[in-house]
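Minimal example, chain plus heme C.
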Amino acid sequence: MRPLLHRAALALALACGAPAAAAETAGQAASAEEWDGLPGGAGRDEVYGICGACHSLMIVKQQGLSRDAWEETLDWMVEEQGMPELDRDTLDLVIDYLAEHYGVDSRDSARP
Ligand code: HEC
């Protein structure tokens, strides 16, 4: 029963520029549906927290892009759409996740 301590920890997590940290904590016990259908794996927390902050994850899930194209898309997100620039590790994590789950293969298999 130390609500103050808890708040301090949360503030610290947010101050570190990691909006995903809060989502991660909240999502720990969440079912798959609560992730808007994002498949599990490293990077899901980040994609859910960072990308879902501005738009539906549908817009992300319906893409099927190569790793390079994902990287370009995220550059564009930062330069034109106001996404905060991610540090290199987070960016790699996010791109790896996207390329793995929403890569060119997934686009092919999702085609009608
Ligand atoms: C600060 C807000 C913001 C954040 C954060 C953000 N986006 Fe976006 N994103 C936008 C906006 C605004 C658009 C719509 C642009 C348009 O259609 O003109 C968009 C569009 C897109 C599109 C559609 C591109 C297309 O060709 O139509 C994709 C894919 C996308 N975002 C992926 C992501 C991913 C992946 C992340 C997380 C790493 C992310 N976005 C984070 C604002 C954001």
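The chain has one domain: 3-110. Confidence is low (pLDDT under 50) at residues 8-18.
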